[in-house]
From TrEMBL:
This enzyme's EC code(s): 2.7.7.3
Function of the protein: Reversibly transfers an adenylyl group from ATP to 4'-phosphopantetheine, yielding dephospho-CoA (dPCoA) and pyrophosphate.
Protein family membership: Belongs to the bacterial CoaD family.
Reactions accelerated catalytically: (R)-4'-phosphopantetheine + ATP + H(+) = 3'-dephospho-CoA + diphosphate
Protein name listed in UniProt: Phosphopantetheine adenylyltransferase
Organism encoding this protein: Amycolatopsis melonis
Keywords tagged on the record: ATP-binding, Coenzyme A biosynthesis, Cytoplasm, Magnesium, Nucleotide-binding, Nucleotidyltransferase, Transferase
Pathway: Cofactor biosynthesis; coenzyme A biosynthesis; CoA from (R)-pantothenate: step 4/5
Site (Transition state stabilizer): 17
InterPro entries: Cyt_trans-like (IPR004821), PPAT (IPR001980), Rossmann-like_a/b/a_fold (IPR014729)
């Protein structure tokens, strides 16, 4: 069975994230959308909220499951017999960072990384920008799935 993990903070999940998840799910028998837990970082959404939204967003993808993990991604891969990491790339700076991570992950455990070029329609979309637009009262609906729009709007009292 070909298994991969698609890691991220997903705070919040965007349409760009969903595009990468959908495309990666067609390449593997099972894809785990993995929310990384960083207790030193305070997100807009709690981990359980992110998991719940991601489960709703990916419900139509039968080979996708959602999980959370605190620690090294390669340790998760080793414990769950996952041989590949799928990541999206928006820019050259993403590539520089992700290439270094891919090489380190392969060196640590042999896990391979698939770097997927983004859909140009989402190349400028990031969770940080979406949160900033939402906090300042701007229109961000087209950048996120409907459930994320509802929940993020509620967080900022819209």
């Amino acid at each position: 069975m070909r298994r991969a993990v698609c890691p991220g903070s997903y705070d919040p999940a965007t349409n760009g994230h969903l595009d990468v998840i959908e495309r990666a799910s067609r390449l593997f028998d099972e894809l785990v959308v993995l929310v990384g837990v960083n207790k030193s970082k305070k997100g807009v959404f709690e981990i359980e909220e992110r998991l719940e939204m991601l489960r709703e967003i990916t419900a139509k993808l039968p080979n996708v499951r959602v999980d959370a993990w605190e620690g090294l991604l390669v340790d998760y891969c080793r414990e769950h017999d996952i041989a590949a990491i799928a990541k999206g790339l928006r820019s050259v700076s993403d590539f520089d960072y992700e290439l270094q991570m891919a090489q380190m992950n392969r060196e640590l455990t042999g896990v391979e990384t698939l770097l997927m070029a983004n859909n140009p329609a989402f190349g400028f979309v990031s969770s940080s920008l979406v949160k900033e637009i939402a906090a300042l009262g701007g229109d961000f609906e087209r950048f996120v799935p409907p459930i994320v729009f509802e929940r993020l709007s509620a967080k900022f009292g819209r």
